[in-house]
Hints:
The complex is a heterodimer of chains A (about 475) and B (about 425). Chain A contains 16 helices and no strands. Chain A is mostly helical and about 475 residues long. Chain B folds into two domains: about 50-180, no CATH class; about 200-415, MetI-like (MetI-like fold). Chain B has helices at about 5-45, 70-75, 80-90, 95-105, 110-120, 135-145, 160-170, 180-185, 200-230, 235-250, 250-265, 275-295, 300-310, 315-340, 345-350, 370-380, 385-415, and strands at about 50-55, 130-135, 175-180. Chain B is extended and about 90 Å long. The chains are: A mainly alpha (about 475), B mainly alpha (about 425). The interface between A and B is large, with 88 and 86 residues.
Amino acid sequence: MNFVLIFLIVIFSSSLFFYGKSKTKSISIERNIKLNALPKFYGYYLVLWSSIPALVFLLVWSLFEPVIIKSIIIETAANQGAIFNDKNEANLIYEKIKAIHLGTYFGDIDTILKESAISYSKFLNIFTNSKIVLIFVTIIASVIFSLKKIKNNNKAREDVEKILKGLLFVSSLIAILTTLGIIFSLLFESIKFFSVINIFDYLFGTNWSPQRAFIRDASAITAAEYDELRDAFGFVPLIAGTSFIAFIAMFVAVPIGLFSGIYMAEYASSKMRRISKPIIEILAGIPTVVYGFFAALTVGPFFRQIGESIGLTVSSESALAAGLIMGIMIIPYISSLSDDVINSVPQSLRDGSYAVGATKSETIKQVVIPAALPGIIGSVLLAVSRAIGETMIVVMAAGLAANLTINPLESTTTITTQIVMILVGDQEFDSPKTQSAFALGLTLFVATLILNYIAQRAVKKYREKYD
Amino acid sequence: MTKEQRLKKRHAAEKRFRLYGVTSILVALVFVLILVNNIFSKGSSAFMKTVINVEVFFDPELIEIENGEPEENIREADFYDITIETLLKAYPAKNLDEENELIDLFTTDAEIEIKKAFLENNNLIGKKINLEITASDDIDQLHKGNYPRNLPEDRRRISNFQLKIYDNLLQNNKINKNFNNYFFNNGDSRDPELAGIGGALVGSFYSIIICLLLAFPVAVLASIYLEEFAPKNKITDFIEININNLAAVPSIVYGLLALQILLATIQLPRSTPLVAGITLALMTLPRIIIPCRASLKAVPPSIREGALAVGASKFQSVFHHVVPLSLPGTLSGTIIGLAQALGETAPLILIGMVAFVVDIPSTPIDPSSSLPVQVYLWSESAERGFVEKTSATIMMLLSFLIVMNFIAVYLRQKFEKRWN
Lengths: 467, 420
C-alpha cells in the first residue's frame, strides 16, 4: 500500500516538473517579463514542493499508525472483557487479533476475539482511507501554494537551493538521531533494570548468573526473590573477564603492531610497504566471525592438545585462545595508526638526532617514539576499545560461564558474550534478565565512548603539535 | 669498554631492532597464510558431494500412478516404497537392523531425488534407470577422508557393517563425487548433506541492498553538507563529534538499538533482511561519511573558485564540479563500508537472524539468515559435516569481500584525480 502511494507521489511530482518548466516559459512570454531563474528551476521547485510534504506526512503517519491502532484495539478488547495481566499477554492477544484478520489464525476464536478482529479491520480501513485523503489534501495544498509562488515569478533557484540545503542538513542530523536512539533505547531498559536491582549490587557484585532470575512479575517481587536477584547480577566477573581477554589481546597486538608500524614508517622500502601494508590490513577486513570460527575450532583444541601433552588442563574454550586471536585481529589497527603517527613526526627531529651521531634505532627509541607517544597511546586506546566491544570471537571461543579467574587456560566470559547469550532466542521483555543485557550494553557504550574520547583527544593534540 | 666495542654493541642493537620489526611483520603475514590455508583446506571439499549409484526400478505395483499423469499428481504421489526398495537393493542385508543401517547410508531426501528423476522423464513406469543418490553425511565425510575409520566401532558414527557396504560399493565403482548443487541452492537443514547457503546468500543480498539504499544517499548528502555548507558553529561541531563516536561504537550496541527501536517499538518483523538492512545502514553510515568527507576535502579549492568565478551558485559549484570529482573516493568508501557490513554478525544475531530458516526468502520481509550468521550457526553444530560447510561458507564470504575491496581499489586508482 505504502509503496504504491510513494510510487504515485513520485510519478505525480516528477510530471509536475515539465508543467512548471513550460508554464513559466509561457508566463514570461505572455507578460513579457524576464524570469528570475532558468525555467527548469521552476520545475524543480514544483517537484520538491509537491513530493516532500506528502512523503514526510506518509512517513510520520506510518510510524504512528500501528501504535495507535494497537492501543485502541487493546483498550476495546479490555472493555469487552478480555483479560490480560501484563503487556506480554496484551501483545499476544493483539497478535491473535491480527492473525484472525489476516485469516492465518487456526486456534479457538471466542466472541471477544472475533469482535476485536472485526473492529481491527474496521479501524484499519478507516486509517487507510483517511491516510489517502489526507495525503491527497497535503499534495493539493502544497501544489496550490507552490504554483502561486511560481506565477509571481519567485526566485526559484534560490528557493530550490534552500530546500535542498535543508535536506542536506536533515541527512547530517541522522547521526545525532542515531546517537539519541542508542542512548534512549539503552537508558530506557537500564532504568527499569536499576529500579529492580540496586546499582551498587550490580557494580560490585561478584556473581553473575542471570539464568537464575526467572521471575514472572518484575513489579511485585518478594524479599526472598529479591535477595536471590541481587546476587544474580554482579558485574565484577564480567568486567574482569573482559579486561583479562583484552589484556591478552593487547599483549599480542601492541608489540607486533607497534614494531611493524615502526618498521613500515622508518625502515621499509616503498616497494615493501606497498606489498606488506595491504596484506596486514587484510587482517582488519576479515569478518570477526571467521576469527571466532578459527579460534574455536583450531586454536582452542590446539592449545588443549599442547596442554595435555605437558600435563596441564586447558579448557577448550580458553581465555588464551580468544585473547590471542583477538590480538591478531587488532594488529592492523595499531600498526597502521602508529605508522601514520610516526610518519608525521617532523624530519628535522630525526636529522638533529643523526647529527649528534645516533644510530637509526637510537633515534627511533629516544627521539621519534617520545615525540609520537601521545599519538601511539591514542591508537592503543582505540584498539582497547575495539577489544572490549568485540563480540563474535569471545562468543565463539571464550566460554559462557562467568567465573572470576586469572588463569588464561580456563574459560571466562565477557560483557558482549553475556549480551548475546541473554538476548539470543526467545526473550521475555520486562524481565530483569532481558533488561540486564541493556544495562550491560549501556556500560559497554559508556566505556568505549570514554576510551574513544580520550584517544581522539590525544591524537588530535598530537597532530596539532606538529602541524 | 673501548670505543670499538661500544660501537659494535650499538650496531648489534640496531640490527636487533630491525629484526624485531621484520619479525612482527612476518608474524602477521604468516598468520594470514595460516588462516587462509586452514579455511581453504577444510572448506574446499564442501563444493563436492558424494553420490551412490543405484538402480531404480519404477515398479508399477509400488507406485499408484501411471505414465503421463499430470505433474501435480506425481508431486503428491508416494515414492516411499520405491525408495526403500531401491536402497535395499544396493547391498544384501540380512535383518531389519542391517536394513536400517543400509538405508542410513543415503540422504534422508532420497525419496525426493527419485521423484525428481521421475518428474524429469515422465514415462518411466516399469523401466529401470541408474540414478546417483546423495550419500548421507557420514559416508560423505568418510569418502572425503575427513573421518577416521580406524577408531573402535563404538566411537564411530559408522558401524562395521556400513563400512563393509561402503568398501563393497567403492570396489564396484558405485561411489562418485559430484558438484554439490545443494550447497548453493538449499536453505539451512539439520542434515549436513542437505544444508546449503542459498537462503543465507539471498538474505545477505537483500540486507546489503537495503543497507546501500539507505546509507549511501544519506551519507553522501550529510558529508556534502558538513564539508561544503555547514557553518562553523556548535551544532556542526556536535554533529562531527557524534559521527566520529558512532564510527567507534561496538557493533553489538547497534543490535540493542535495533532490538529496542525497530523490533519492540516500531514492530518490524523479526529475523528479516529488512531489519538487518536498516541496522547495518545505521552502523555503516558514519563509516561511509568519514571517507566521503575525505574525498570531498581532497578536491582543491581552485575548482570551487573557478566555478564561482564564472557565475555559478554555491550549489552549482558543489553539485556540478566538486561532487563528480569526489565520486571515485566516495564510491570506494561506500563499497568498503558495505563490505564491513556484509561481514557483520553480532547485531544480526540480536535481531533474531539466528532462527533456523529452511526456506529461501523471497522478499526482504521473510525470515532469513545471512552468510556470517550462517557461519556462526553451523560452527555451533556438532556434526562433522558442518565443519567443511562452515569453512566453505567462509570461503564464499571472503571471496565476496575480496571482490568488493578489489572494486573499491580499482575505482580509486583508475578514476581518482591526483591534484599535485
